[in-house]
Write a structure and sequence with these properties.
Elements (H helix, E strand, L loop, with lengths): L5 H4 L24 H19 L5 H19 L9 H14 L3 H20 L6 H11 L1 H10 L5 H21 L1 H4 L9 H6 L4 H5 L5 H21 L8 H23 L16 H10 L1
GO molecular function, one term: geranylgeranyl diphosphate synthase activity
Keywords: Transferase
Organism: Comamonas piscis
Length: 289
């Protein structure tokens, strides 16, 4: 799966190398919630490794992820975890049983990993923003919904705002990583927007510099910023320290957008990340929220 980077979404979290949508082991996380959050994280990180690590081909990765998906269904039925991946599924099953985690959200994550492998193997593009958002619905939004579930926040406005934040984080990662993804055959600039800007698939795939292509990137960044600001009021609905962690997540995403937008479309050739020097500004902005 296409991951969000530490700089864009795990600002308040312990540094990790995979699946940084999860604020794992953060000092702001209530101790009682650390075990289920860690269980969810290790489940997603292991799926991420299956999807991206090593040199297996696409069919082998898909077969492995299907076996992983079957193992999830196995424990969801209350059966003991299989020996394979037991270290992942034993704590996850305990979290599911204790916290009544919605298994469909966990399954959605695997389906997104599988879709990403398919798309990349075929060098396929997304048709439009709705198709891209459907990918975000399964690749990113489950993260926020699972965390809200643990915090007992389940009203419709909060869920919608969480989806907006998580989709924004995923989109931000796309626009931050264009210089890395396009050479790898991952295309997130969708066909409808490219056609509206009169940009051919070849020009996009070859990153042929033009004012139109740079403007398209800026439009995508503006779209992600609108989504993030739409979801930002959620910080006032999430209780206690978690609300402060969420403020930092939001500000981390917005800070990456600042840097993408400052490049004026050149993230097609350059990648910007958050560094230690960005911390004071992000903390100040989080406090002002």
């Amino acid at each position: 799966m296409k991951d969000s980077t530490p700089s864009s979404s795990a600002t308040a979290a312990t540094p990790v190398t995979h699946y940084e949508n999860f604020p794992v082991a953060s000092w702001l996380c209530p101790p009682a919630l650390r075990p289920p959050i860690a269980a969810i994280y290790h489940f997603a990180r292991t799926a991420d490794d299956i999807a991206d690590e090593g040199d297996a081909d696409a069919p082998a990765r898909l077969a492995e992820l299907q076996a992983y998906r079957d193992a999830l269904a196995h424990i969801a039925e209350g059966k003991p975890p299989l020996t394979r991946w037991q270290a992942v599924f034993a704590p996850l099953q305990a979290a599911i049983q204790q916290w009544q985690l919605p298994v469909v959200l966990l399954d959605d994550l695997i389906s997104a990993f599988m879709q990403d492998i398919d798309k990349t193997a075929q060098a396929a593009r997304y048709a439009d923003r709705n198709e891209l958002l459907d990918y975000c619905r399964r690749s990113a939004n489950p993260v926020g919904r699972l965390l809200l579930h643990l915090y007992g926040v389940n009203d419709a406005p909060s869920l919608a705002q969480s989806d907006a934040i998580c989709s924004a984080l995923q989109l931000i990662n796309f626009w931050q990583d264009l210089s890395v993804d396009i050479p790898r055959g991952r295309y997130y600039l969708n066909d409808a927007d490219c056609q509206a800007a009169d940009i051919s698939p070849t020009a996009m795939q070859q990153r042929q510099d033009s004012p139109a292509l740079r403007q398209l990137v800026m439009q995508q960044a503006a779209w992600a910023r609108r989504l993030m600001l739409e979801g930002a009021p959620l910080v006032h609905r999430v209780p206690g320290r978690a609300g402060w962690e969420l403020r930092l997540v939001v500000q981390g995403g917005l800070r990456i957008l600042d840097k993408v937008e400052a490049l004026q479309g050149q993230s097609l050739w350059q990648r910007r990340t958050i560094g230690k020097g960005d911390g004071p500004l992000m903390l100040w902005r989080a406090w002002r929220m």
